[in-house]
Design goal:
Strand order of the largest sheet: 1-2-3
Structural class: alpha+beta
Shape: elongated
Radius of gyration: 21 Å
Strand content: 15-25%
Low-confidence stretches: none
Largest sheet: 3 strands, antiparallel
Distance between the termini: 13 Å
Helix content: 25-40%
Mean pLDDT: 76
Length: 159
């Protein structure tokens, strides 16, 4: 099971790659702001086609913002048609994903195995109910379970 750390690290690498690609893509769209990772939702307006909202980016200096996407009830040809979908996308913007990846990397580092068949580096006390402390600990198993739909996830890691 020692490959759990390696597999989990690869999942975090993939999350980071996707978030950074979204940041680059925002800079490439008309009106986009290069490097903007913080997305916002708002600026509703209505015309004969329906109600529309904007997903925008906030650059580090916040002097200018770019439109990533227009979404709304009257759009045809794609895009989100409900404000809840846009709010979800904004809530999981690249900046948040990158913060989560960094935090998860720190958790993984603190729960690496120590010694032969050892326990976590942090000597955590998380374990499955009624089970002795073993590695991988419940913390890593829970963290890995988020990615259970990705290739390489092993049932033996299930919490």
């Amino acid at each position: 099971m020692a490959d759990l750390v390696q597999w989990l690290t690869a999942q975090l690498d993939e999350d980071e790659r996707i978030a950074r690609a979204a940041i680059r893509a925002v800079g490439d769209v008309p009106g986009g702001v290069p490097g903007a990772a913080d997305w916002r939702f708002g600026n509703a307006f209505t015309d004969e086609g329906g109600t529309y909202w904007q997903i925008t980016t906030m650059p580090p200096d916040a002097d200018v913002f770019g439109v990533i996407e227009l979404i709304g009830s009257g759009m045809s040809g794609g895009g989100a048609h409900e404000p809840e979908i846009a709010r979800h996308a904004v809530e999981h913007d690249p900046a948040r994903v990158l913060r989560e990846v960094e935090m998860k990397r720190q958790v993984v580092e603190q729960h690496r195995p120590v010694g032969y068949g050892g326990v976590c580096l942090s000597l955590c006390h998380t374990r499955a109910p009624g089970q002795p402390q073993t590695w991988p600990c419940l913390t890593l198993r829970l963290l890995a379970s988020v990615y259970e739909d990705r290739p390489g996830y092993q049932e033996s890691w299930r919490p």
